[in-house]
Write a structure and sequence with these properties.
Blueprint (H helix, E strand, L loop, with lengths): L12 H13 L1 H14 L2 H13 L2 E2 H8 L3 H13 L3 E6 L2 E6 L1 H15 L2 H5 L1
Antiparallel strand pairs: 1-3, 2-3
Helix pairs in contact: 4-5
Length: 124
């Protein structure tokens, strides 16, 4: 691997300072977004998030049937998503329905629109 060097004649001190300040201000937001994307980086959890986005509410049995996985496996993924507040739940009688949290619906909408339009395959 070649060594890469940065050779600049003059640093833009104002730009560097402005960028440092902005990154520092957004530190908590970076953590929040990074953790969300880390969880969504798992293919099964991404599918669950997509299905909740599309259908608004699903129970664990629905997700199990759709994804062809055991209820236990789906429940483990749901727990991880719930622990980080990516999804919410609502109990109706004996059934718990899961839904995508509003702030994450906003965050993931652009990704899910790309999926819907198959744009990822076109760009590869």
């Amino acid at each position: 691997m070649k060594n890469i060097f940065c050779i600049r004649e003059q640093a833009d001190i104002e730009q560097i300072s402005r960028c440092k300040d902005r990154v520092s201000e957004l530190s908590t937001t970076f953590d929040y977004l990074s953790q969300s994307l880390e969880l969504a980086g798992n293919k099964v959890r991404l599918k669950i998030l997509y299905l909740l986005y599309e259908e608004k509410q699903l129970c664990v049995c629905d997700l199990s049937d759709i994804l062809g996985m055991t209820i236990s496996a789906i429940s483990q993924h749901l727990r991880k998503l719930k622990d980080r507040n990516l999804i919410g739940m609502e109990r109706r009688a004996q059934t718990i329905f899961y839904s995508l949290a509003k702030e994450y619906e906003i965050l993931f909408t652009p990704f899910f629109r790309i999926l819907d339009k198959n744009k990822i395959l076109e760009t590869l």
